[in-house]
Specification:
Chain A: GO terms for molecular function: ATP binding. The complex is a heterodimer of chains A (about 230) and B (about 400). Chain A is of the alpha/beta class and about 230 residues long. Chain A has 8 helices and 10 strands. The longest helix of chain A is centred in the last third of the chain and has 18 residues. Chain A is globular. The two termini of chain A are about 25 Å apart. The chains are: A alpha/beta (about 230), B alpha+beta (about 400). At the A-B interface, helix 2 and helix 3 of A face helix 1, helix 8, helix 9 and helix 12 of B. The structure holds adenosine-5'-triphosphate and magnesium ion (MG).
Chain lengths: ~230, ~400
């Protein structure tokens, strides 16, 4: 699905130069559920942004489905994001002036050839998947944190992306709601075969995924199958 | 996408209310000023109905109250004025000569209809001095001397209002005394007040000195040969003063008088345009500021849109589009208000003036909106998605 080769990311500000990622090599096959852990500031979000084509590496190559993306222009990158990638963020990033339904429909607004009726239907299906069919007319500020994150997941999956990138999706939620979100992601991965890369600080969550990559100071320090993986295989 | 933008603006109507009101008022002021300008400019391009070049006006003020004596002097002066080889023709008028600061009107009635009309007292040669064209009937002449009625020549505006479809020639209009006016001719246009004034109903009443024995007329119009200047003016005034002795005499060219009148119409137009300009500048700065501020507030939204598949150019178009939608809301209100002027005919102004002003005002507001949105929108489009999404 996605391959990173010798990725280097350096943030250059006036006073200091921060190496956010150093010599990262990763291959994530289709259908895998990977978690990424590491201390704060070790470059996890930076990694996800690069995978999601929101940011460019200083050096190295990103390949999606075997295609190196470095030579794409902004428009084509936007198109790939729209077609293949869904994002979930710690702070949801919902548009407060739009209803739940309109928020979920957003990605399809940027996809030509989808009729309004079709879009509506897909949005309702996505909301059903995350158990929010009853809240379509609500506005984000009228929802709890867990509900907001479920809206964000519905938005991420409406376009049926092959890859979902989740940056601490349960970071702002209590353990019960976090559990709910985790279950939705696990179901997505198992039933639809969606590839998921999730950044988390929660060891328990990480152990539920198949593979766990640990980062420290911009570098991979370990990459291993989890017990859940072994369990699944049995 | 357009539906999406309308939804977005509509849901944000509370925070956009101020902007929409600003655009609404800006539009109304623009509409008012443009209506005035369009009205004036349209009048400017309509025919005056006369030729004022090479026409001078001699204003005479006698120093005695004796009408008989003054009349005698007046006739001598006219005789002499006609005698100059530099002068082509002369005609007495009353003080509301073309481009003069004076008006005189009279009520006319025909059948049930009553209306006010401008009255211009002129001598028979006025049509030669002013090069007037009669389009129907005839101008005054010797044949009017024997008439029992007072002959008048009317303009088309008067004919349409008073007689509508009827042929006005020969029609009688009662005067205050038991006598009547009789229409002998029609001119298409006569617009003496100013180039920027609309044509008003008016009629010419004949000055026939033998008949108007007790009247004095202090304004003499002279058509001079082309190229006559100060030199001839001095010579003429000197000679005529020799005849009249103590009278005050003043000569002004109609061209000069036209310029004075034009200035009077232009000054308020220019002043209003400047005031309007400042107002628009103010609104523009406000609009620009709010748009600028909005972008920093909407960082997360911009980042998100980029993440779900908006190209930078789409973010740009969205922001421009939002401002256009915003302007449209203000304009819908504004047009609904402005359209009442032609519908209700609040002033006696042709509807087309309002429609032209409306069209220009709408266009200018959209241009203003795009102008203000241009830079902020480019800024929004340039925002780096990863930065914008960076958790606060
Ligand atoms: N726009 C930026 N400009 C400069 N430095 C940056 C920028 N974004 C991130 N960094 C730096 O890069 C490093 C990695 O940041 P990153 O956000 O990827 O960390 P993280 O692992 O996601 O941390 P956290 O767990 O707190 O979210 C940090 O040292 C951070 O300060
Ligand atoms: Mg992070």
């Amino acid at each position: 699905m996605i391959t990173l080769k010798n990725i280097e990311k350096v943030y250059q500000t006036k006073t200091i130069e921060t190496v956010a990622l150093h010599n990262v090599n990763l291959h994530i096959p289709k259908g895998e559920f990977v978690s990424v852990m590491g201390p704060s500031g070790c470059g996890k979000s930076t990694l996800l942004n690069i995978m999601g084509l929101l940011d460019e590496p200083t050096n190295g190559i990103v390949e999606i489905d075997g295609q190196p993306i470095s030579r794409y222009r902004d428009k084509e990158l936007a198109h790939i994001r729209n077609q293949k990638i869904g994002f979930v963020f710690q702070s949801y990033h919902l548009i407060n002036d739009l209803s739940v339904l309109d928020n979920v429909e957003l990605p399809l607004l940027y996809r030509s050839g989808t009729s309004a009726a079709e879009t509506r239907h897909l949005a309702l299906t996505a909301l059903e998947k995350v158990g929010l069919s009853a809240r379509t007319k609500h506005y984000p500020t009228q929802l709890s944190g867990g509900q907001r994150q479920r809206v964000a997941i519905a938005r991420a999956l409406i376009g049926q992306p092959e890859l979902i990138l989740a940056d601490e999706p349960t970071g702002n939620l209590d353990s019960v709601m976090g559990e709910e979100i985790m279950n939705i992601l696990l179901t997505l991965n198992r039933q639809d075969g969606t590839t998921i890369v999730m950044v988390t600080h929660d060891e328990n969550m990480a152990q539920k995924t198949e593979r766990l990559i640990r980062f420290f100071d911009g570098q991979q320090v370990s990459d291993a199958k989890t017990t859940a993986y072994d369990y699944q295989k049995v | 996408m357009i539906r999406h933008l309308f939804k977005l603006i509509w849901n944000r109507k509370r925070s956009n209310f101020l902007l929409i009101t600003e655009i609404f008022f800006c539009f109304l002021v623009l509409f008012a000023v443009l209506s005035l300008i369009v009205y004036n400019v349209r009048n400017y391009y309509k025919p005056l109905g006369f030729e004022h070049e090479n026409v001078w006006m001699l204003t005479m003020r006698p120093d005695t109250d004796s009408t008989a004596l003054n009349r005698q002097t007046l006739e001598q002066i006219m005789q002499r004025a006609k005698g100059f080889q530099e002068v082509e023709s002369v005609a007495l008028t009353n003080s509301n000569a073309p481009f003069a600061f004076s008006q005189m009107n009279n009520e006319l009635s025909y059948g049930e209809k009553k209306m006010m009309a401008n009255e211009y007292l002129v001598q028979d040669d006025f049509d030669k001095v002013m090069r007037m064209q009669v389009s129907h009937g005839r101008w005054f002449g010797q044949q009017d001397n024997a008439s029992h009625h007072y002959p008048i020549v009317i303009n088309r505006a008067l004919q349409q209002k008073l007689f509508e479809g009827e042929d006005p020639l020969g029609k009688l209009i009662p005067r205050n005394d038991s006598s009547s006016y009789q229409v002998v001719g029609v001119v298409e246009h006569y617009r003496p007040s100013s180039e920027y004034t609309a044509e008003e109903p008016g009629f010419f009443n004949r000055i026939h000195l033998p008949k108007n024995e007790n009247e004095f007329y202090g304004e003499l119009l002279l058509r001079v040969k082309p190229g006559m200047g100060v030199e001839f003016e001095e010579k003429m005034v000197k000679e005529l003063s020799g005849i009249s002795k103590g009278w005050t005499m003043e000569v002004a060219t109609l061209e000069k008088m036209r310029q004075n009148k034009a200035k009077m119409a232009k000054v308020p137009m220019i002043a209003l345009t400047i005031i309007c300009g400042f107002l628009i500048l103010n609104v523009a700065l406000g609009l620009f500021g709010v748009l600028w501020y909005n972008i920093s507030r909407r960082n997360s939204e911009i980042g998100l849109r980029r993440a779900v598949g908006a190209a930078s150019s789409q973010v740009y178009r969205q922001f421009i589009g939002e401002v256009l939608v915003l302007a449209t809301f203000g304009l819908v209100l504004g047009v609904a208000f402005a359209i009442q002027f032609p519908l209700l005919q609040v002033f006696e102004v042709e509807s087309v003036v309002y429609f032209i002003a409306l069209g220009i005002a709408v266009g200018l507001i959209y241009l203003l909106a795009i102008g203000c949105a241009f830079y902020p929108s480019r800024q929004a489009a340039a925002i780096h998605p990863a930065m914008a999404l960076h958790e606060e």
